[in-house]
Each structure stands twice: as C-alpha cells, then as structure tokens.
Write a structure and sequence with these properties.
Elements (H helix, E strand, L loop, with lengths): L2 E7 L1 H18 L6 E7 L3 H8 L6 E12 L6 E7 L9 E9 L3 H11 L5 E9 L12 E5 L5 E2 L15 E6 L2
Parallel strand pairs: 2-3, 2-5, 5-6, 6-7
Antiparallel strand pairs: 1-9, 3-4, 8-9
The protein binds 1-O-pyrophosphono-5-O-phosphono-alpha-D-ribofuranose, manganese (II) ion (MN) and magnesium ion.
Length: 176
C-alpha cells in the first residue's frame, strides 16, 4: 500500500509519559519483593527497554511471543504461544507490558494463560490504548495514551515489519 507517515506523538511526549507511568508503577509495587515484567514480543521491546530502566528496586524482565489467528468456526480467537516466559511466575508479582491494545484479544488470552500458573498478582500496562476497537473487555491497570482508531507505527510498532525503529509514534496515511 502506498502511504506516508505523519508524527502523532513525539519522542519527548513519550519520554514524559514514561516518567508518569513509572512513577505510578513504582508506587504500586513499592512493597513488592521481586517484580517480574513480561513484555509481549515484538511490539513491546522498545517500550520495555525504556520503561524497565525507570523501575526501582529488584525487578526482572522476561518476554513472551504469541500469535493470534481467527477461528472461522467461531467468533473467538486462538492465541498460540510461539515463545513462553522462561521464569516460573508462581507467587510472583507479574506486570504484562504491551505496546498497544486494539481488539483486546492478545491481552485477554495472555492473561488467561498466565493466571493458571497462579502468580501472586497479575497487572497489565500498555503504552497505547484504542478503546474504540475493543472486541473483548480487558481491564488495563496502567495506560499511557488513549488514542483514536488510527493506523499507527513507530516506537516498536510495525506496519509489515517496518517502522519499529522510529523514536516517535506516527500515523500511517494511505495515498490515493
Ligand atoms: C500487535 C500489538 C499488540 C496486538 C494488539 O502485535 O503489538 O500486541 O497487535 O492487538 P489486539 O489487541 O487486537 O490483540 P502483533 O500481533 O502485530 O505482533 P508484533 O507485536 O510482533 O508486531
Ligand atoms: Mn504485539
Ligand atoms: Mg505487528
């Protein structure tokens, strides 16, 4: 698709938002012994790198990679684990770190998959939230920006694997 991109959220605005998010997360986990941040690959890699460096105290990081695909026979979606976390999450405070919530399918399935392992607590953090696109209701504890239903890229988020390296978030604008 022929397109152009247009900056929507600057690197400075992201930086400022990460400070606010980290402040809230640090306050929430003040008494936590071993917080585990779990990033969902690939989109969250950039956000995770910047966010975890602002978290105080003992924190560990891990990653999970899932792929979702529609099931023609029903309206529900299956989520396949391509890479699981390496850590044992039982009895840990777990914070899932995601770049973007769209339909909510990815996060709600990951939440279900992790909850059966009986973490001490399980919370969700997303940099971007598109509530207009929600198909599955999922409670998000920490939200960076709530955005309208625009096609966005950058800061880890791709369009056909491109633009993950942009230091800012941009809108994709289709041409003719
Ligand atoms: C994107 C994004 C979220 C997910 C959100 O990931 O990074 O993980 O989609 O969509 P949902 O709320 O409708 O489930 P994608 O599957 O494109 O993989 P990627 O992170 O590797 O780009
Ligand atoms: Mn993703
Ligand atoms: Mg993607």
């Amino acid at each position: 698709m022929k397109h152009t991109i247009e900056e929507m959220i600057s690197a400075a605005e992201i930086d400022q938002k990460l400070n606010e998010l980290a402040e809230r997360i640090n306050a929430h986990y003040e008494n936590s012994e071993r917080l585990l941040m779990v990033g969902l690959l690939k989109g969250s890699a950039v956000f995770m790198a910047d966010l975890c460096r602002r978290i105080k105290g003992h924190v560990e990081i891990d990653f999970m990679c899932v792929s979702s695909y529609g099931n023609a026979m029903s309206s529900s979606r299956d989520v396949k684990i391509l890479k699981d976390v390496q850590s044992d999450i039982a009895d840990r405070d777990v914070l899932i770190v995601e770049d973007l919530i769209d339909s909510g399918n990815t996060l709600s399935k990951v939440r279900e998959l992790l909850l059966v392992r009986e973490p001490k607590s399980l919370a969700l953090c997303t940099l971007l939230d598109k509530p207009e696109r929600r198909e599955v209701n999922v409670h998000v504890d920490f939200v960076g920006f709530t955005i309208p239903d625009e096609f966005i890229v950058g800061y880890g988020i791709d369009y056909a694997e491109k633009y993950r390296n942009l230091p800012y978030i941009a809108k994709v604008i289709p041409q003719e």
